[in-house]
Amino acid sequence: TEEVLHRQDKLAAVGQLAAGVAHEIRNPLTSMKGYAEFLTLDEKDPERLEFMNIILDEIERVNTIVEDFMVLAKPKMVELEEKNVVPVIKNVVSLLEFEARKKHVKLSFECPHEIIQIECDENRLKQVFLNFIKNGIEAMPNGGDLQVKTMIHNNNVQISIRDTGVGIPKEKLKQLGEPFYTTKKNGNGLGLMVSFKIIENHNGKVFVESQPNKGTTFNILLPAKPA
Ligand code: ADP
Ligand code: MG
C-alpha cells in the first residue's frame, strides 16, 4: 500500500500557474461556444452542421480540462458541509451501473452503515468517486468486478474501490496524479490529479495497492464524525 497524495506538493506551483491560465482561457471559450451554437441554429447544409458540431464537441473538451485545472487554484471551490456520505456514494454507483453493464463489469456497493457523517463538498466528492470508479471500469476492457466498500476505521471512513483490471506496474505508481499522465488513447490524465486535490481539501488521504494483471484498489480515507 502506498500513499499517493502527499506527492502533490511538488505540483503546487505549476498547478497554480496552469489554473491561472485556465481561468483566462475560460472567457474566450464561453464566447466561442455561444457563437458556434448560434451558427448551428439555421444551418441547413448537413456537412457544415457536422463540422460545427465537431467544433462544439472540441470546445467542450477544452472546457472540461480548464475546469479541472481551476480546482487546483481555488481551495474555495470546495465548500465543506456536514453530510451523510453514504447516499452520495450510492448515487454515483447507480449513475455508473448502465455503463458498467455495457462493459461487462459487475459493479457492487457494500456499506454496513446507513449513516456516515463527514464534512464534505458533495458535488466535488461525487466527481472524485466518479473518477475512481470510471478508471476502474476502464481498467477492465474485457469485463470484471468492481467493488465499492465503505468501512469505519477509528475516526475515519475508508472508501475502497477495487477492480480486477490491468493493474499498475510498481514503477508507474509514482506518476499517478501527475498532470497529463495517461496510458489511454482518449484519456486526458487529469482525473487523478483533480481527485487527489479534492481529497486533500477534505483533509483526507488516498492509498493505492496494485498488482499487474490482477487489479487495483484505491483506498480513500476521510475524517468522519463520531456516530
Ligand atoms: P485518464 O483516466 O484520463 O487516463 P486519470 O488521471 O484518471 O486519467 O488516470 C491516469 C492514469 O492512471 C490512467 O491512464 C491509468 O494508466 C492509471 N490508472 C488510474 N486508475 C487505474 C486503475 N484503476 N487501474 C489501472 N490503471 C489506472
Ligand atoms: Mg480517469
Structural commentary:
46% of the residues lie in helices and 22% in strands. It has helices at residues 12-41, 46-73, 85-102, 122-138, 191-201; strands at 2-3, 81-84, 105-110, 117-120, 144-153, 156-163, 205-211, 215-223. The longest helix is centred in the first third of the chain and has 30 residues, at 12-41. It starts with a strand and ends with a strand. The mean pLDDT is 90. Bound molecules: adenosine-5'-diphosphate and magnesium ion. The site of magnesium ion has 4 residues, from helix 4.
Index terms:
8 strands, six-stranded mixed beta sheet, two-stranded antiparallel sheet, 227 residues, globular, binds adenosine-5'-diphosphate, single chain, binds magnesium ion, alpha+beta
Give a concise summary.
The chain has 227 residues and is of the alpha+beta class.
Summing up helix and strand content along with how strands pair, one would put the structural category as alpha+beta
Report the portion of residues in β strands. Answer: 15-25%
Number of helices, where a helix is a run of at least 4 consecutive DSSP H or I residues: 5
Q: SSE order, as H and E?
A: EHHEHEEHEEHEE
Ranges where pLDDT stays below 50 over 5 or more residues in a row are: none
Proportion in helices: 40-55%
Shape summary? globular
Radius of gyration: 19 Å
The chain-level mean pLDDT equals 90
Strand order of the largest sheet: 1-7-8-6-5-3
Distance between the first and last residues' Cα:
28 Å
Find the count of extended strands (DSSP E, 2+ residues): 8
Ions, cofactors and other ligands present here are: adenosine-5'-diphosphate, magnesium ion
